[in-house]
Write the structure tokens for this entry.
Amino acid sequence: MAKAMTKAQLVEKIATKAGLTKKAAAEILDFLASIAYKEAKNSFTLPGLGKLVLVQRKARMGRNPATGETIKIPAKKVVKFRVAKAAKDAILGKK
């Protein structure tokens, strides 16, 4: 299996494609990430890739795997990424 692309490799590809310096491309990438973090509570969409959404999980009963003891897991908020249909089709191929 191939290794995942690093941030430096992504910055280099963006800089090459857009005709920017690596520093400018890194600033754009960091700015995009900071916007996503701030807007995730309202849902943040990256067209063609997917959407960051804040989801409220309900409280539930679980089990401690070490002891087998039943425990109550409290309700909490989690961030999820929902992949766009266009990205699924491009990666997996159309069915």
Remarks:
- The mean pLDDT is 92.
- The helical segments are 7-18, 22-39, 85-92.
- The first strand starts at residue 44 and ends at 46.
- The chain has two domains: 1-39, 43-95.
